[in-house]
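Throughout our pipeline, every protein is held as a single compact record rather than as scattered files. Such a record has a labelled line for the sequence and another for the backbone structure tokens. This encoding replaces a full spatial description with a residue-level series of whole-number codes. For reference, a complete record is included directly beneath this paragraph.
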Amino acid sequence: MPGQDLPQVLLQTNLGDITLHLHAQEAPDSVSNFLGYIDAGFFDGLIFHRVISGFMIQGGGFTTEMQRKPTRPPIRNEAANGLKNRRGTIAMARTSDPDSASSQFFINLVDNPGLDRPSPDGHGYAVFGQVIGGMDVVDQIGAVRTGIRNGMKDVPVEPVVIQSARRATAET
């Protein structure tokens, strides 16, 4: 499925590196949005703020102090693109409004067919890429101890920080 022409991103975390292939053809708006944040250095210093073992890890919105970082306007939901929320895929996080995704994303720790379209809300969560390196790091993040912080549940007790998020090449 991954091809040489697909964009790649390297997420360097304090627990190790994660390499992603992005599916620009199937999810053009989501990939363009994500790469815009990557190119702006937006994710540097943010955390994985929601970790649910056996489900997913979510990041892209909060600082280590649990402050929400301002984002660009939301994008349309591309969950009807045919890509499924399988183990190792990356998808756009959103609120109950299907077209509310901005900077936050999640990586599936397991197959999550309930997040595909039609999900219980009828809209689904748009998959726009997949992990091609560092799934062991994703699993390590998925196993960290969590608690409640600033009123939010499932927050890692020890911050899992995205130190750097950059476009990568096949050689990276």
